[in-house]
Amino acid sequence: MPDTARPAARPPGDAPPRPRAGGWPAVVAVTTGVFSLVTTEILPIGLLTPIGASFRISDGTAGLMMTLPGLVAAVAAPAVTVATRRADRRTMLCALLVLLALADLLNAFAPAYWALLTARVALGLVIGAFWSIGSGLAPRLVPQARRARANTVIFSAVPLGSVLGVPAGVLLGSVAGWRAAFVAMAALTVLALAALLVSLPPLPPQAGAGTGAGTLRGLLGGRGTRTGLAVTFLVVLAHFGSYTYVTPFLADVTRVGPGQVTALLLAFGAAGLLGNVLAGDRAARAPGPALAAAAALLAAATLLLPLLGTSGPGAAAVLVLWGVAYGAVPVCSLTWFLAAAPHAPEAAGVVFTSSFQATISIGSLAGGAVVDHASPTAVMLLGGATALVAAAAARALGGRIRPRPEDRPGGASPGAPSAPAPALGAALPEHPATR
Fold first, then answer.
1. DSSP letter string, 190-223
2. Over the stretch 188-243, which tens digit does the pLDDT of each residue have?
3. Helix axes 23-55, 113-134, angle to 10 degrees
4. Could you tell me if 236 and 130 are in contact, meaning their C-beta atoms sit under 8 angstroms apart?
5. What span, in angstroms and rounded, lies between the C-alpha atoms of 375 and 16?
6. Is the dihedral of CA 324, 239, 102, 128 positive or negative?
């Protein structure tokens, strides 16, 4: 008689059962890692002046701290996506957080500006790699009915970097020096690494989930993707070309101290969360008009700052408007890319990350040249003019872009309850989700 206690053999070619996902502890661990990554990237915006004073460099030269990570991340995102298709995602994420902690420590103890820039290059590699492999983990960590909410939790770390991370870093920098802020970021990164080691199960690559070079090339040939790239370039150029140097503006023109700068940046970040919430549903229906409205508000803010930003209350009002405007940009841009390529969402995310990060670099570099040769006021006016062009382009080119419900960022899977769109804020991957 056959041995009835023996389990039936699995047919040849069948994949072994997938290990159980890590659940909400793993989601929180990934979120903490994203928060640490985003805060480390944009922290120099709030510490630009004291860092420049330490190394006796101009504000424009100090702006290279924003230029280099974005440039490296723009290259790393597609390169890592193609190169790590066979790597376990848990191993990759943990290795990247180790590198991030080392970069934070090098930032903190850099003996010269070249060492600090070396740390920022390493940061750029982490940004591109982390977003290229980590942005789609939510479906593997929680049940299907909770995927949309898990996505929202993970991506909410991006605006929280502006709301909590940068103001806290600026406050710590004003009390204990700017280097202490990077030591604190290294400690937070180590905590995130420990949480990932404890909560994440093995995450081998899934069959068919990889993004090859051919897929990326085909995606770039689509009209919707090309127009999305053009509009995203203009609006992100306008924002980072001017916002990277908002601290020198507040110090030189508004004439406020470090404590007030912290409060103003906190107001900007909080307004960014509001802008993300307000834009989510609108972007899901029509990302082109929503992005056009965000760009128009951004133009109004940057053009008004030289006029109203000579006083603390005026600067606060304009920065709140600016925060609402920019808070809407990443979710609108990502929705545009996803709607243009519903057949390749992972590839769309890579293109979004690369374009965002590359433009952060170009904007920071261009703004630095204007600041060094003119003034912080001039860079605000140029940013406003660029944002006006972006608004017109989004209105003209984005009218026909309409995402499917299942392709909306944070959209529910069939049968899952609805959830708000992922809260994407100032830097991606920014997802990344670029930033």
1. HHHHHHHHHHPPP-PPPTT----HHHHHHHHTSH
2. 999 999 998 988 888 776 554 446 666 677 667 677 788 888 888 999 999 989 98
3. 160
4. no
5. 62
6. positive
